[in-house]
Amino acid sequence: MRLKDKKVIALVEEEFEDLELWYPVLRLQEEGAEVHLIGKEANKKYIGKYGVPAESKFAFKDINADDYDAILVPGGWAPDKLRRYDEVIEFVKVMDRAKKPIGQICHAGWVLISANILQGKKVTSTPGIKDDMTNAGATWVNEPVVTDGHIISSRRPPDLPQYVKVFADVLAQN
């Protein structure tokens, strides 16, 4: 299991895109990674856009991002809420400074925009936030998955197989 010693933060908030949270979490767990669902509150059940629940293991205030090897930001409407938490922005900045893998899909780019880490980066996202990404200084491309150093980005659920494979490959090498 190539990811057996890796710890990953998976951010969760109401109205996450169900597949964009669960597909990466389960795939990384299959490869041996320890994935913690982290939300504003510990042990809280958050409900995805399509009704799939996800229970947080820890609250934002309970963890130290330095103890983790990577972070995943799901899409849906959750990113618009997640980017309002100072702790989330700090987690992303910590991962960015340490060049640890940051995975973002669909609307998750909003969190990276709020963390101010996209200047000069090549990324993708749902086309709906293309302007937001470019206004943050990124070069946006319409591809299933884009890797720029430690930032791995993807567009939407049909791209999940490619996205999670690339994310796991980057995490394994890190």
Automatic annotation (TrEMBL):
<dbReference type="InterPro" id="IPR006286">
    <property type="entry name" value="C56_PfpI-like"/>
</dbReference>
<dbReference type="GO" id="GO:0006508">
    <property type="term" value="P:proteolysis"/>
</dbReference>
<dbReference type="InterPro" id="IPR002818">
    <property type="entry name" value="DJ-1/PfpI"/>
</dbReference>
<dbReference type="InterPro" id="IPR029062">
    <property type="entry name" value="Class_I_gatase-like"/>
</dbReference>
<keyword id="KW-0645">Protease</keyword>
<feature type="domain" description="DJ-1/PfpI">
    <location>
        <begin position="6"/>
        <end position="165"/>
    </location>
</feature>
<keyword id="KW-0378">Hydrolase</keyword>
<dbReference type="Pfam" id="PF01965">
    <property type="entry name" value="DJ-1_PfpI"/>
</dbReference>
<dbReference type="GO" id="GO:0008233">
    <property type="term" value="F:peptidase activity"/>
</dbReference>
<comment type="similarity">
    <text>Belongs to the peptidase C56 family.</text>
</comment>
<protein>
    <submittedName>
        <fullName>Protease I</fullName>
    </submittedName>
</protein>
